Each structure stands twice: as structure tokens, then as C-alpha cells.
Amino acid sequence: xxxxxxxxxxxxxxxxxxxxxxxxxxxxxxxxxxxxxxxxxxxxxxxxxxxxxxxxxxxxxxxxxxxxxxxxxxxxxxxxxxxxxxxxxxxxxxxxxxxxxxxxxxxxxxxxxxxxxxxxxxxxxxxxxxxxxxxxxxxxxxxx
Length: 144
Prior knowledge:
Blueprint: H1 7-10, E1 17-18, H2 24-34, E2 38-42, E3 49-54, H3 55-64, E4 78-79, H4 96-103, E5 115-119, E6 126-131, H5 132-141
Parallel strand pairs: 1-2
Antiparallel strand pairs: 2-3, 3-4, 5-6
């Protein structure tokens, strides 16, 4: 990959957010409408990022009967652990090499990741979501 490309070049789609009190069925419907595999979960009051929903994981939980479609999103979401964890800030200006390292688990040694929440520099606003698939597609399309 060239050294100039950044997350902005991926043109990440806007994050599709749901609230903890939305139903699981609403979240699934919204994800299907946009063909998204991950939804961010934000606070109703502050719009703070609380966690995310992985649609493939959610389908598995539904199949196992662990979660029902009438349950609230908060029963199925994966929460971001705030305490004692250093988060890699991914912004529109993050070089794609760093994003690739993040997906491959090289950043902060936190293990491989399948998606990244793209925020502003101060992490106050969710600007989009980039997936490992988005990065792979970009690399394929890009002239060598």
C-alpha cells in the first residue's frame, strides 16, 4: 500500500447507530436495509458510544435462543470496556497501514479486529465504520 492513503480514501459509510432500548428486530431490520454487518450502539441522552452489535454474532445468538427478537439491543450488544483499556483512535486521517495493523491485531496487542469505529480526533463523534472487507476491496481496486 502507498504511504499516502488514509481511512478517508476508503470512503467509510456513515455509522448506523441504534440505542440500547431499541429492539433486536429493529436493529436487524436497519442493518439489512443498508447491508451493514456492524451497528454502533449509542446512548440516547449523550450519543456517547457504548458498544456495538455484530449482526453475524446476533444471528447466532438468535439461533441459539440466547437472545430473542423482542429483547432490547443492550441484551445482545458488545460493550466497549472503558476502564484500563487503551483504545486505538481511528480517524479519517489514520494511514491505511495503521488500519491494517489494527485489523491484524498489531496495534495495542488486542488481537485481530473485524471493524473499526471511525471518530473525530477527540473521539466525541462517530463518523463511520470501516471493516476489514472495506480495506481489502480498496486494495484490490487500487492500481499497483
